[in-house]
Amino acid sequence: MAKSTFGEIPLSILDLASIREGFNESDAFQNSRALVQFAEETGFHRYWVAEHHGIAGVASSATAVLIGFLAAQTEKIRIGSGGVMLPNHSPLIIAEQFGTLATIYPNRIDLGLGRAPGTDFKTARALRRDLHETVEAFPNSVMQLANYFSDAGNDGIVAIPGRGLHVPLYLLGSSTYSAKLAAKLGLPFAFASHFAPDELENALELYRSRFEPSDVLNEPYAMVTVNAIVSDTTDEANFLATSGYLSFLNLTRGNPTPLPKPREDIDQIWTDYEKHALQHQMKYSFIGDQQKVTTELKQFIDVHQPNEIIVASNIYDPMLKQKSYQRLAEMWF
């Protein structure tokens, strides 16, 4: 088929270093290494990993450490966090970690920031941060972090490494809160529509309408994360997608598991209510052959006008996952 024309919109990858059923964390990291190397060779713009804790299928908890590993396996692709959950950490510690990464891998490290704990309440308490911080504490933490990367430091406290590196900050969100904050601070904004579709339009409208130019950006830069699975046939893509559905299903049932193998009999596993709820939660999933996904992604981009698309893909088999990204790249570049 002829290549589609997606213009100059960068295409990036979000990875959770998935631990698959029957495999372990070491396998997950090696799969991420192979995928980031493929992404660099193929022309993807950036590769982000997300902080989660205590989830059986996710190995990206020590996000900065994993970013260092992936950056060491590549030469030019941008590597970053999508994101670091800032309430879990001291801003100074994050400044030192990402200052170290940016020193070792100059002009390649991104620092995406979220305000959720990325885990359950009990695990959040074990992370030893103040669980009673107000919502207003997050903007203050973001500003502290930005100051640590400035030439002057933060109120006489200096991050070494970190000072003067101006590591790029991105605010992540699944609601309108971070959209408004990103607009106020003049920062890039990434919306998690791959699992929180309902507020996408409101968040983008608020971000764009309230955006205040800054030293970082003159105009809004909106990134949108979606799910995508591209296969030879739509039936095969729908089969592969059952792994992601089952993973979300187990999580919502309070029993997170490693990423399950795809199943033909998924309708025997979830209830009608669960099926509709999860399919709504994953509304912005582009699943099918190249022609179907091309058409649907074009429509999505026409409506929402993102500056960048970030793709998550919950496919059990690492080679089929890479093959899906290859088909997506063939459509894109």
UniProtKB/TrEMBL annotation:
InterPro entries according to UniProt: Bact_Lucif_Oxidored (IPR050766), CmoO-like (IPR019949), Luciferase-like_dom (IPR011251), Luciferase-like_sf (IPR036661)
Limits of the Luciferase-like domain: 24-249
SUPFAM superfamilies linked: Bacterial luciferase-like
Family annotation (Pfam families): Bac_luciferase
Residue ranges the record marks as coiled coil: none
Molecular-function annotations in GO: oxidoreductase activity, acting on paired donors, with incorporation or reduction of molecular oxygen
Top-level lineage group: Bacteria
Gene Ontology CC, one term: cytosol
NCBIfam families for the chain: oxido_grp_1
UniProt similarity note: To bacterial alkanal monooxygenase alpha and beta chains.
UniProt-recorded name of the protein: Luciferase family oxidoreductase, group 1
Source organism: Listeria grandensis FSL F6-0971
